[in-house]
Write a structure and sequence with these properties.
Blueprint lengths: L1 H6 L4 H39 L3 H38 L4 H24 L3 H8 L3 H15 L4 H22 L26 H17 L1
Helix pairs in contact: 2-3, 2-4, 2-5, 2-7, 3-4, 3-6, 3-7
Length: 218
């Protein structure tokens, strides 16, 4: 009985695998929510450009960039932890104790990042990016300062490129459409056909004779 209980005991590896599954499920759920927020941020950037507010458009695109990177980073981190735990589980390695601390620290960081991602799923936060109230402006300044240390020079270049693309789309949408229909035909169909041959001598005399008869009869 004691042997059976020992055999069915949940090990630290089993718990780590379960925790990883919970984190993975959370990440998938948050990813769906944050994709909705990202679409809203793109719309917010377009609206800001239409209103001539480049700074707000840039802030919305920076926030979007940060969120995409946050998702990618968390996904990559969880994948590495899963591979490490599963490898130790398959090989029944006695070295699990050596990597257990690393895995637990990774799980702790994963939970912290997931909490951060969860905060980014707020639609109200997107609305604050566009508002002009004192509270909204304070929030915009706070986000701008936070992102300043998280966005690299390469990221800035990509964001500026995306901004230019959105501006071009905005300009293209304002241009009038070129009509596709054909122009109406203005040539009348009832006009006589143009002669394709020169009248012969007999034909000329017949025409002259007809005209003379018409004069006499008149």
């Amino acid at each position: 009985m004691g042997a059976g209980a020992s055999k069915n005991k949940i090990t630290s590896q089993d718990k780590a695998i379960l925790d990883l599954k919970v984190q993975r499920d959370k990440l998938k759920r948050y990813q769906k929510n944050i994709n909705v927020v990202i679409e809203k941020e793109i719309e917010a950037a377009k609206l800001a450009l239409a209103q001539g507010n480049k700074n707000k458009a840039l802030l919305a695109l920076k926030k979007k960039k940060y969120q995409v990177q946050l998702l990618d980073k968390t996904d990559h981190q969880l994948m590495n932890l899963e591979e490490l735990v599963q490898y130790e589980k398959r090989t029944h390695s006695i070295e699990y104790a050596l990597v257990e601390k690393q895995i637990l620290e990774g799980l702790k960081k994963g939970n912290e990042v997931l909490d951060e991602i969860h905060k980014e799923t707020s639609i109200e936060a997107v609305e604050k990016l566009m508002d002009d109230t004192a509270d909204a402006i304070a929030y915009q300044n706070e986000i701008d300062e936070m992102l300043h240390g998280l966005i690299s020079v390469e990221d800035e270049e990509e964001i500026m490129k995306e901004l230019d693309e959105l501006r071009e789309q905005e300009l293209s949408s304002e241009l009038p459409e070129v009509p596709n229909n054909k122009l109406p035909q203005t040539i009348a169909e009832d006009l006589p056909d143009v002669p394709t041959h020169v009248p012969r001598k007999n034909e000329k005399e017949a025409v002259r004779s007809t005209k003379e008869k018409q004069v006499l009869l008149a």
